[in-house]
Amino acid sequence: MYDTGIVHLVGAGPGDPGLLTRRGADLLARADAVVFEPPAPVEMLELCGPDCLRIEAGRAASGAPDPKPVHERLIELAEEGKTVVRLHREDPFVFGQGVEEAKALSRAGIPFEVVPGVSLGLAAPAYAGIPLVHQGGTSRFTVVGEEYGALPDFRSLAREEGAIVFHIAAERLGEMAEGLLAGGMDPGTWTVIIDRGGLPAQRVIESALEKAPEAAELGGLSGPIVAVVGEAGRLRWELNWFEGRPLHGRRILVTRPREQAGELADRLEEAGAEVLIVPTIRIAPPEDAGPLDEAIGRLGDYDWAMFTSANGVRFFADRLRARGLDARAFAAGCRILAVGPGTARALEERLRLRADLVPERYVAEGAIEALEGEDLAGKRVLIPRAAEARETLPLALRERGAEVDAVPAYRSLPGEAEGAARLRRGLAEGEIDMVTFTSGSTVRNFVEMVGAERLPEAMGRAAVASIGPVTSEAVREAGLPLHVEAHESTVRALAREIADFYRFHPAMSWGSADPLAGDH
After folding, report:
1. What is the CA radius of gyration of the chain?
2. pLDDT tens-digit profile of 447-467?
3. Model's pTM, two decimal places?
């Protein structure tokens, strides 16, 4: 369509990846290069494909400072025929460099598109529970921001009707208050100061206008901040929805493999947490697929197929399809057991199979209990599972006379080195309130990534949560105290238990006694 590439100037919004527009996400997914302002949310950059160039604005590929202006870099990339996303904070045309970049692209004959983003000046009040225009109030509001250090005329703003939204640096609050007061504004005018608006770490300070700079300084706000001056701020007392969530302000580490972290991360974020995803394990096919292939080749001989995890279902289904087969390869009378609703759901989604039996307890011991009344003597049982899985279920079945083929369908590998560095940094800087574990492998690899000898010091104040008793056992074997254990081994239950812990209990440090030690 074009003789060159194209540049998309995309607004990233105020920082919450959930507020990125669908158009912006689609463009990131097919971009050849993305040029971003730090600190861009990791979740946004991960929308890019594996071959996408990730370029920090003002930095060369080597990481050294780039003497070229950003617009020249954009032009170079487009002239190479690349599809480029220039990711702007908030909106490209609001308090940013997007206008200058668009002008330069236009003059160079480079096609470009502008994808608007949510402005912090509008998002922060909404996240603080402040409607800028509402029924029964004034029909106007004013947004004032610093662009290239320009000084707003605070005296004239003092005569504006409705709320005034200032998108400024924290150190400018004194100047703002002085100017508005000099312009005749009532010293008692209600002022709401919002730091890191729209993010889980959002903090809000309320004050009369004349006391606002002092209140912000005492609160340790560093900005940039959004200040809403006007009576609209009082509606926050009734409409504050964001900060009242049970996990607001908490940073929680999810150690699941990235492709499986989504559900837990989503549930924690819905409860207000800031989620850091640092996988301590990677899921990979088995080193030798021979045993699984042999088992698939004689599926018609099995009386039972027992799946203990969604991963087992996933890799089994992939291998089945690779051999040109589907669920019809099972014997007509073969019964299916699924340990846990997640495993049962994976069977339905990937193989169109409905489990005949789902134990009440979502662990191997629960499967053994559920099979109590079954005559297993002489029955052939297939268990596609992790290479590192416990022998609890196969041994119990063999003791009852079953012929068991427990074959590796996948294996768990340690997380990547980059994740290990990020993990150690987050713990060292006290950024993590809680670490979650969903399997024994996540625990063991976490310890390996942090270093067993450094564990007590490294954990700092971080609490620990486990998805169930088997994982909890691994937690204790690692020398970690346990603060939360899900009453059933599901992501939903784990997220709920974490929310209840912070709703009803004070934060606990790593060195505190294990509050669950007496339960097991």
Report:
1. 28
2. 888 888 888 778 878 899 999
3. 0.71
